[in-house]
Each structure stands twice: as structure tokens, then as C-alpha cells.
Amino acid sequence: MRDDGPSAGALCEETASENPAADRRRDGFLPLESYAAIGDGRTVALVGIDGSIDWMCVPNLDTPPLFDRLLDEKRGGCFVLAPDEPFTATRRYREDSNVLETEYTTMSGRVRLVEALNSSSAGRLPWVELARRVEGVAGHVRLRFHLRFGTRADSICPFIQTNSNATTFHAGEVMGLLRVSEGVELEEEADDGVRGTLTVAAGGRELVAILAGENEPLVVEPVETIDARLDTTHDEWCEWSRGIRYDGMYRPLVLRSALALKLLLYSPTGAIVAAATNSLPEGIGGSKNYDYRYAWVRDASYTIKAFMRIGAMSEAKAALSWLIKRLDEHGPKVCYRLDGRLLDEMREIDLPGYRNSRPVHSGNQAAGQLQLGVYGDILETAARFVAAGHVLDPNSARVLAETADLCAEQWRQKDAGIWELEELEHYTMSKISAWQALARAVELADGGHIPATCRPRWERARDRIFAWIEENCWSEALQAYTMYPGTEKLDASLALAVRFGFDGRDRLEKTIRAIDAKLRRGELHYRYNGVERDEGCFIACSFWVIEALALLGHDREAQGRFEALAKVLDHGKGAGTLPEMMDPRTHAFLGNMPQGLTHLALIQAAATLSGHAV
Predict the structure, then answer these.
(1) Do the beta carbons of residue 180 and residue 223 sit within 8 Å?
(2) Among 178, 274, 450, 509, whose Cα sits 20 to 30 Å from the Cα of 559?
(3) Do 568 and 440 sit in the same domain of this protein?
(4) Which InterPro entries does the protein's record reference (predicted)?
């Protein structure tokens, strides 16, 4: 095994400054790089280094949040557990696991906070179980906790209710239980929240946990059972990690990103969510704030290929089956809800937003767009599945053939492009994706994997698209493929054309160099010209460029740039939880997180550098 790049700790640990971690909040908000993600295959929680869980939807990733302090610092729901005196903090994930450990050091002692969204040895639990165990390391430390119920922009009115078995809290259709160990003292139980304290000495341990569900009965689990499940959860994550078949370069980074992608796979259906959060801004104070808690065909397809590349075949198969069923049911849409339904219309929610970045949205405008890239994404994914030695069923084969027919029919149309823009154009990347779709359809038909009835049409359309791109999308002046015909804008997503196998090595190489010249800032890249004013650099683009350089034969250059980019990403050290974008000057995190495209792009670049099959 080769691993001559960043150490196992890179991207996997954060150290708070000498000032108390609570003082790291700016304008009341923690920097996004100060969050780490935990999850259970159904939902994801974002945990701040100051001990505040500021985002978690219950029971599912795309249902309304129980904790939303991330978007409403003053009134949003949160679950704070932290020392009751100034402290510094370090954190990391347990090795090969999504169980998070944070060590708090105070003048009086040191404690370790171990937390996870629990699972069992039989898999995901039928309720959400958030467990937070405090272990004494040295001296003694007094901690406070505050469970604050949000009102979802004043659309609900939380309350608590007591019966002969338990006290429950209610937030809309969510009902929950707070479970604590004997050493935890409850100081206040009110409709707007619960407060308490606990003191832990060296060798001691206490537990604070939440069990929650939506419109369903809850089991009042013993505290000892919840505590034991924390360790079971770690064991299950380690078992999953042992199944990852990757022995190439940068394995610690690849495995950490694989674990992040696993958090984004919605286990009840196999859907893959683009990111776990909603409306985190691409530029602080700007309006590019979108809801990413849905399954995009593009993101899911790329994730499936990343999973296949590292041997996570169960996840790849589940996600591919889900995608093909949605295509059969609804046709080739851009994105779907996690249960397979189409998205409702996008609406605005009256919340202040992260660091006052408005608007906050529910839903996504991309749902109704035409994006030709959908065709290339799904047919490329099917082709990779078959190339790995697997078999398509007759119904899936039919759906894929029909998808190729639609592509051959629609490729001449303007669309919204990979970046889901309001301006419809003949985006070069969209045409390359259509070429990719029909090239893969021809290959699948030749291999006997899908019906070949329309193969001659696919082949002719594929060649017409290539000729159209060469004639209309190449700029002699810029020596590059442009974003669309007639513009001087460049598009960093065109780096993907190298992996797609698009013909014309010389022109692709020149395009990559032009992208570097115009869109690169340090080790990062903007998506396309003109976005510098209102958003950060799109991290996946930089990994796409690195992978393209490696595929074009520039291995040493690509390796050096991968390692330099890894150091940049380590700046925030969100314990390995990566966002969509970064500010190229400050390296502050921007956009929704954990972002699937970022993590899968890291995996693909590392695997390409290691010589793993594309």
C-alpha cells in the first residue's frame, strides 16, 4: 500500500484556539469549519466544537429540522453540552468510524465527549437516538446542557407533556424523550427547553441522550442500553470500513470521505442526498442559499461511481436501483425527494439565515429544469456498473434504452447546465454529457446489456454531437472549450470531460490550462467566470482538474496539487466534514455540508492517482 501524502490526521482533527471555544462564534454563529457530522443512515446532525448541535432533522434528512440554530442563532433549536467554565477543545472521529470524540480541557480537569446517532447490531434503529457520553479523563469538570426547542420560524409551538411513564417533548409532529444517567441533575423542564448540569471526575462517565420520532410511539430505553449502543455503533462503522477495498494513496483521506458519503445515503430507500443542510450561503450575506437535502441524479450518479471504485458495492447497487426506478416512474428529472416523490415548489422560510444570509428556502428550483447532463450521468453509471462485472435486469435495461432515446431527441435543446442556471444556453458541458450518454448507450447495446433497437440512431447522434461541439464550442482565441458558444467564459466542470473519455486530448489539455489560468485562486477554483463577486471557490472543481491532469499523464504535478489542496482543506479541520465551497482568501467554509460532490471528487482524484480503474 502506498500512502506518501498527508498523514492519517489530516482533515480528521480540529484544535480550538487558546480562547474559549464558545468565543469562536462570530455574529453569534460558529464558523462552518467548526462543525462535524454524525449520522445514522436516516438523518445527520452537525456538532459544533463548542458542544452545540445546531442542525438535525427528525426523522429524515429532508424533513423539518428539530435543531436549526444554524439558520436562527437567537431562537433556533439546539442541544448544547459543554463545560461550565472557559475551555479549549480538540476533536476527531474514532478511527474507521463516524463516532465523534471531543476533548474539553478546563482549569479543573479534562473530559471526553463521545457522541453518535446510534445504530444497533441489526442496523438502523426505528427511531432517532442521539447519544452523548461524557467520560472523565483528568481532574473533574462541571458541564451544563441546554436542550432548546425551536419554533421553525414560528410555525409550531413546542411543549412538554408528562404521563405515568415519561416526560416527552413535542415539536410539531415530532415527539422525543430526554434520557439521562443518574449523575445528571435536571434544573428546568419547560415548554421551550430543558436545562441541567453534570459533574464528571477522572474515570467517571455520564450520559445525556435524545430518542425521537415522527407520529409514532417511542420505546423508553434504559440509559445503560443507549450507552452500550454507542460502542456498538462504533463497532458497526468499523465493520463497514473494513469492507472498503482501497489500498491506494491517501487511504486515510479516502476512507474519511467514504464515511462522509455513507452518511448521505438514505438507507430506507437507497437515495443519496446532495448535502445534509439547507440554505448555508455560498457567499456570506448573499442570496445563493439553497436546499440540498434531496437526491440529485448527478450527485447520486457520481457517488455511485465513487462507491464502486472503492468496493462499496451494496451502497452502489442500492443507489443505482433507486435511480433507475425514479427514471421509470417519473422520467429523467434533475432531483427527487428521498422517498422518490417529486419535489414541491420552492418556498421561502422566514428565518434570518446563517450569518444573516437570506433567503432561507425549502425545496429547490432545479427540480423542474431541463439538464442534459442527467442522461450522461445515468448511462455512464450503468456502464461503470456493467464494466465492473455486474448485471442489469431487463426492466432496468429497458429504462436505460428509453433514456438514450430521449437524449437523442433532446440534445439540440438549450438547458440549465450542470450549474442549474436560470439562463438557458447550449452549455458545452451539457452537450459533452449528451455525447457521453449516447457513447455509453452504444457500448451497452454492443455488449448485449440493453436493447439495441435504436443503436444506429444513438451512434449517429453521438457523432453529430461531437461535430457540433468541435464546430461551435472551441475558441481559437482562448485555446479552450468555452462555457457555451459565443462567450469567452470558461467552465471548470469541463475538466470532467477527460474522465468521460471525450475525444480530443490536445484540446482538453489546453482547456485545463486555460481553466487554471482564469479560474484558479491558489489551490482552489471558481466554477466559471463572473461568480467571484458572490460565492466562494467550488472545491470539487479543483479535484476534477487534478484528476484530469493525472489522466492526461501529468501524475507528478497532479499529486503535488492534491497534497497542496488537502492542506488547504485542513485549514478549517472540520474533523473531515467538507463543504461545497471555500473562500479562497480566508479558507473559510461556505455552502451546504457535508457536501457529497466534494467528498466523492476527493475519492475519485485519489483513486486515479493510485491507478485504480476509472
Answers:
(1) yes
(2) 274
(3) yes
(4) 6-hairpin_glycosidase_sf, 6hp_glycosidase-like_sf, GH15-like, Trehalase-like_N
